[in-house]
Amino acid sequence: MSSHTGQSAVTVLGLGPMGRSLAGAFLDAGVRTTVWNRTPGRDRELVARGAAGARTAGEAVAASPLTVVCVVDYDAVDAVVRRPEVTDALKGRTVVNLSADTPDRARATAGWAAGHGVRYLDGAIMTPTPTIGTPAAVFLHSGPEELYRAHRPVLAALGGTHTHLGEEIGRAAAYDIALLDIFWTAVAGYTHALALARAEGVGAGELAPFAAGISAILPPVFEQAAREVDSGHFSEPGNPLTSAASSMAHIVHTSEGHGIDAGVMRAAEGWARRAIGQGHGADGLARIAELLSRR
Ligand code: NDP
């Protein structure tokens, strides 16, 4: 691809696995790319592919109208961009912050940016590094729509789908946090299941094909729960909370019988029992979202 050659320029601050993937995708698309990382030397391969390696973050951001920041969290973002020479160089330019953190941190960073004449978009990357530059990548963005539209053509070099979620700057981080809540509890559940299966003499490879079957039944469950939570009408499902709580108790019992911590499942069972105690035993698991969001 060479559609961007000579027409656009981007700076990437942060060259961890994700930052390197982002910079590589910009290079592949022909975007003039300047890179910088706190620890020197991480730019070697990118420079060999045509990136400009900046000696300082200030020098890096001065090279492009758009700077993409991708570091571990917003403490790291602050450590990079809130240095006077970097802040000065960013004045009048745009930052797209693709580092992950909380909605509150996104709002605080936007406040800092507004106070220093820095144009600011927040974003989240929902897919792993091999997807970057391919149709499988998923990017979420929030902040001023006009700014998003202005930089959308360059961001398109990252491939995949880009969704602008609205002007409220914390929105991309809010989606990110909620989606990662699903991801990390699912992965934690899987690792726990592997330990439990092993204790029963079942190998991980033996369980894996059936585990894939479990994940395949989730999409319609998610859709049904979303409809119920948004409408506030909870149907009587094939698997009511009374049955779910009983199943969870079996997992707790078997885990603890093998000396395996069952804290996560105990917590989930506790929510189900509370909802049952409030008279919702015939409802499905979606009822728990309402229970947890009550103030
Ligand atoms: P990390 O989350 O490990 O971030 C590494 C980067 O952060 C390096 O550039 C590192 O610099 C920098 N960094 C850490 N602390 C500081 C600091 N105090 N000052 C300056 N720079 C600092 O790796 P990734 O690249 O994978 O992730 C970057 C972001 O992308 C994270 O927020 C992550 O959640 C998000 N993300 C990553 C995905 C992935 O698949 N990897 C998927 C989706 C999102 P140094 O080299 O000097 O240590």
TrEMBL record:
Sequence ranges assigned to domain 6-phosphogluconate dehydrogenase NADP-binding in this UniProt record: 10-166
EC class: oxidoreductase
Keywords from the named record: Oxidoreductase
GO molecular function ontology, one term from the record: oxidoreductase activity
EC number from the UniProt entry: 1.1.-.-
InterPro entries linked to this entry: 6PGD_dom2, 6PGDH_NADP-bd, HIBADH-related, HIBADH-related_NP60_sf, NAD(P)-bd_dom_sf, RedAm-like_C
Domain NADPH-dependent reductive aminase-like C-terminal: from-to ranges: 169-293
UniProt-listed Pfam families: NAD_binding_2, RedAm-like_C
Family, per entry: Belongs to the HIBADH-related family.
Protein name (record): NAD(P)-dependent oxidoreductase
Organism the protein comes from: Streptomyces andamanensis
